[in-house]
User: What shape does this take?
Amino acid sequence: MSNGESPRPSDQDAVNRRWRLWASTGAGAIVVVAIVIGFFVISSRGEGGVTGALGLDHVHETPEAVAQTAAGALPTDVAWTAATLGLLEDADPEAGRAIAVQTCASCHGEAGIAVAAAFPNLAGQPATAIFKQLSDYASGHRVSPMMAAMAQGLTAAQMADLAVHFAAETPAESIVDANPPAAIVQLVVNGDPARGLPPCSACHSARGGPVGTPPLGGQPAAYLEQQLTAFAAGERGNDIYGLMRAVAGMLTPAEIAQLAAYYGN
Amino acid sequence: MNSSPNRLVAAHIWVAFIAFAVAAVMGAWQMLVRSPIDAPLETAETYFVSVTGHGALMAYVLPTLFVMGFGYYVAMTALKQPLPGLRWAWAGFYIAAIGIVMAVVTVLSGQATVLYTFYPPLTGSVFFYLGVLLVVVGSWIWVAVMITAMMKWKRANPGAAVPLAMFATVANAILWLWTTAGVGAELLFQVLPASLGWTDSIDAGLARTLFSWTLHAIVYFWLMPAYIAFYTILPKVAGGRLYSDTMGRVSFILFLLYSLPVGMHHLFMDPEHGSGFKFLQMMLTALVTVPTLLTIFTIGASLEIAARLRGGKGLFGWVRALPWDRPMVLAAGFSFIMLGFGGFGGLINMSYAMNSMIHNTSWVTAHFHLIFGGSVVIMYFAIAYHIWPKLTGREARSLTPIRVQLWLWFVGIVITSFPWHILGLFGQPRRVSSFDFANPEIAYWGPWTTVSAIGGFIMLAGAALFVWNLATLYRGAAADRTMSYAMAVHQPREVPRVLNGFGLWNTLVAVLMIVAYAWPIAQFFFLDTYPAPVQRVDVGG
Amino acid sequence: MDEKRIVRSELRWVFVVAAAVTLMLVVIVATTLANALHPPSNVETIDPATLHIAGEFTEANLGTQENADGTVTVRLIATQYAFVPRCLPVPEGRPVSIRVTSPDVIHGFIVAGTNANTMVVPGFVAELTTEFDEPGDHLMPCHEYCGLGHSNMWAVLRVVPEEEWIPDANGRMTCELVP
Assistant: This one.
């Protein structure tokens, strides 16, 4: 080993190589080979040629039988499109309040706190949730003669006004059960893996969840039990992709009652 | 050196390791939750809050702050000049520290349970994203200071070869700047506007693509301090010299070049990209093995020099003659072993077809814990042990607790990650809080998961002992504060310009990034893509 | 040892490395070409907000459909926090195309022990075609974090032997129809 302080001139030659050319050539060669294989060789084997490999070949022909949908089978007409979300953003809570005083207050209370346990509290519910249910009543996807009559008299903009009005009100205080059954708490916070039941709180939390999902805390227990039972029996079917029908259908009547008591007042 | 710059280094490293210790507790607890054993506080929400915290602290805070602190130290000791912009450096530190507190409080309060990978259209509190962004901004100041320090040194030493440790540190700084562009764009143009309520939908495909830009290169940013230690500290500690300074430079340049245009190998199973660019980036991914394989040769040769100087004999028998009692050597040995296994696992991940067996299973978790948690973090430990006497002015009272700690970490990570690989092959999905082990189809996962959890607690013990060591061990004899780096067999005075700076290389990086990412990003602007509605996890919606 | 020899030895090693990398790539390309399953790369866009209203992914259309040519298409929704339908019958040893998308957030699935694996990204339909050779129930977990109910999102893929594969008159097959 040399003393290592300074390379001799010949050593300098050893270091003076065309490093950049080599690195560029190496990378360039790999890129060319990859393009040849990725865009021509592989894509010729069932991935739609070069356009397929670029992701441009994306027209899928849906069989006609599949493309047509029986209208009656739909759970709802509401979709969270930019138009729907825009309607809610532009809505006027004061206009909503005016309608609420006239139309809703006798059951749901002027500030959205229901007058009887058969009716849900609307105060503090997400505007998306209120809007969807009103629309579904009007279109018949959620069945209630009384609510259908009310909702059918409203325009979509008025439903949005009502939704943002109630959403802005202070929600009912949730009366927390001091000693809830452990199995019920388990269902709420962890679900039941054996049955494929997700935790209730994953969607129905005041903190947020899938768009249009109501938080459940502080609702009248009787109302919650009635709705879960209706989902389980298939009498209520305005849940998208049948999620609540499936979940409620897996719960026992006793669990339904206890869950209603856990969340409800 | 006066004490203030030392405090700067120590402050960064302490924040990094405090974050690490907190995240280690979370990690061990998560292992327990996943196992058949009951864990305290076990709910779906606490689990995913913990996963978000563990990921953000381990991926964003620990490596970033460590790299920054170590970088400042290298800039002062390798260049032997005061740090330019010391005030800026402190400002960067405080910006990052504020960001960390902001993000951690937000995560722990359950306002941002979106994991450290963000996963829009899930959208949490804006303070989480701002916190992460502040850490990045703090690190950008570090990048500026590193580049300034190197330029200043070059002006003062015209024509001279930039010391390898600093050359590598600046390579990492530039790599980091390129790396953060992807996630930065995702945060600024997609996630923050949604989180502020300015937009109500997000193009999830574009977000995944931008994140993939960052997702692989960031790993090399994490890795670089380990490689800097391999090249510039380890050969000296082992009692030898660096075999080739030139090949060190070449390796660090290749890391800069090849670790960026490869992120789409994380998207093999994604529907938003055609097969062509997936395949192209897969091929480019193969190139990132080159600098690592070069390093193994160069460091192997350097260690052989050391061993033979110590009387080592035989074709491979010299390995026994290395001073394995020195923490840096021991840690490097462990690091190489884990790099070997982890690298092998990584070959499966990057393989276009085989990846479909293990994508998003525990195999992936195992892979990056072995590589990052194992090979890289154990070198963070070794670096901290190595420079602590120089920062504190006191030697360690004993090396035994240090050796025990390194063994604990190595054994812990092996016991954790080997069963994980196997579970991944069984198809165990990652990021699942609890399994129905009563189901006969997956009941046999239970024992493997339990073994893995035991490994997690051995790692936790290693983490705790590490912090204890740093805090209490360095009260021995007065230490020499001079930091010196390994000399090469032929220590160069001058090197060609291309091996002494990065201006020329950045062009090549830009070309590769355009080839690899221009189309995959641009397609979202001319295909009829449909953004998904934003889903808030922090406030009702 | 002079620097020239050192650099030359390193460069010789570079050739070894290049050979190793090339060999690795050859193996990867060969397995890719030999493998029946290509990663889902169809880049087919769809509006996630209106999936349930009209088109291919309405509730009534989901599930297993035997096509005229004997191949089978499975239409599937991954949503918080379930796969719809929850049980997917597929025939043993026949090509099966799985078409899946999401109305909400990112999901994914793997069928343990097979190469059926995909991400499900809202805004895109992922399509993968494969064959299942092992009759019986296979678990199909969601493998990407999709929210707090993620851990409970599991479906069952039921591989049905040919003699038990009796779809209804419209070519529809459900797990209830498996004897």
